[in-house]
From TrEMBL:
Lineage, highest ranks first: Bacteria, Bacillati, Actinomycetota, Actinomycetes, Kitasatosporales
Protein name per Swiss-Prot or TrEMBL: WD40 repeat domain-containing protein
Keyword Transmembrane listed: yes
Region feature Disordered, mapped onto this chain: 241-326
Keyword rRNA-binding: no
Keywords: Membrane, Signal, Transmembrane, Transmembrane helix
InterPro entries in UniProt: WD40/YVTN_repeat-like_dom_sf
Record organism: Streptomyces noursei (Streptomyces albulus)
TM spans (from-to): 328-346
Segment forming the signal sequence: 1-37
Length: 350
């Protein structure tokens, strides 16, 4: 029997043992969470100069960095932002171009160059031409002034107001999406190669049922996402045309203006206008995942016993998450151990 005066701790397993069991149980539960722990975090655009972030594109040369820019009334500037801190790590000033009118989008092409879309039309589609600027992605992130190419863009069916520019990561072809014209938006395809010496005519290739504020191709080029203020849709990209796969979630934002895939293609990063605006992640699953990510999920993986069993990651089926009995057993074991540890702690503190 323990003494009745101060009730010192009873002999037996000490409190650190129970605490260790609890820690182990928590580790089991964390491990059972699977790939979700690796999902990228959102970040805040802390640069006071960035008040109308209207486009977003993941860097190809600098992992963890995103390119963005302001809407109209800013100047020929593009900003590189470190997602780990939200701080601007480089400001690129474009020279050799005219005065930007309504810059709405940015995309990084397979040629290692950044494309900036001065494609908005605040007059509702009355400008007979708009512009695309292009410059090499810097090898080093620091403030610099670079000479950019300027391309004149016209639409085959007349002026349009657009906010989405996407460069296909395999072909390098440029696509634009009109915001909303004549009752609906539309996807336009540019020439195989842009010309700086003449007009570049974009032709309508598909109607889009969305008020589009931005878009992006997946890194492998098999998916196209288009977003609006309150919704987004994912498309399978096949033979140069979009096939609708349905809606994807969009976070509630002040003025949702931009979207980009993460470099692994598994997550969408949504941006918004406004000072100290948030860039928020939304993970993809099922058919919405690009083909390269789905192939990785379906690749054979050795199990812990070395038996060579194959297993896919959660979400590798179109219908949602595939069942995992091993993971369920792990969760149950962890939860049981955690409950027992807590009960042990409570008994020893009486």
């Amino acid at each position: 029997m323990c003494a009745a005066v101060r009730r010192p701790r009873c002999p037996g397993r000490p409190l650190p043992y129970a605490a260790g069991v609890a820690a182990a149980a928590l580790a089991l539960l964390t491990a059972a969470g699977g790939p979700a722990a690796a999902d990228p975090a959102g970040f805040t655009l802390t640069d006071p100069r960035i008040t109308e972030s209207s486009g977003l594109a993941a860097s190809r040369a600098h992992p963890g960095v995103y390119w963005t820019h302001n809407d109209s009334d800013d100047g020929p500037y593009v900003y590189a932002v470190d997602a780990a801190t939200g701080r601007t790590v480089a400001t690129i000033t474009l020279r050799g171009i005219g005065t930007p009118r309504d810059v709405e989008a940015v995309s990084v092409g397979p040629d290692g160059r950044i494309y900036v879309g001065d494609i908005g039309d605040n007059l509702g589609g009355s400008w007979d031409h708009v512009w695309i600027y292009r410059f090499p992605e810097p090898a080093q992130l620091r403030d610099a002034t670079v000479t950019a190419e300027q391309f004149t863009v016209r639409y085959a069916d007349g002026p349009r107001d657009a906010e989405a520019l996407m460069v296909h990561p395999r072909t390098g072809r440029v696509y634009l999406v009109s915001k909303k014209q004549g009752g609906g938006a539309a996807l336009y395809e540019g020439p195989a190669h842009l010309s700086a010496s003449g007009d570049n005519t974009f032709h309508k290739v598909a109607p889009i049922d969305l008020w589009v504020t931005d878009g992006a191709f997946s890194p492998d080029g098999t998916r196209l996402v288009l977003r609006g203020y309150f919704g987004a849709r994912m498309y399978r990209w096949r033979d140069g045309r979009p096939q609708d796969l349905g809606g994807v979630p969009v976070p509630l934002q002040r003025q949702g203006e931009s979207v980009s895939f993460t470099p692994d293609g598994r997550t969408l990063m949504y941006g918004s206008e406004g000072r100290d605006s948030q860039v928020e992640p939304v993970a993809l699953s099922g058919e919405q995942l690009p083909d390269a990510a789905r192939r990785d999920d379906d690749a054979p993986q050795d199990d812990a016993s070395g038996g060579g069993a194959t297993a896919g990651r959660p979400g590798d089926r179109a219908g949602g998450t595939a069942p995992s009995y091993g993971k369920g057993a792990l969760v149950l074991a962890g939860a049981t151990a955690l409950v027992l540890a807590i009960r042990s702690l409570l008994r020893r503190r009486r």
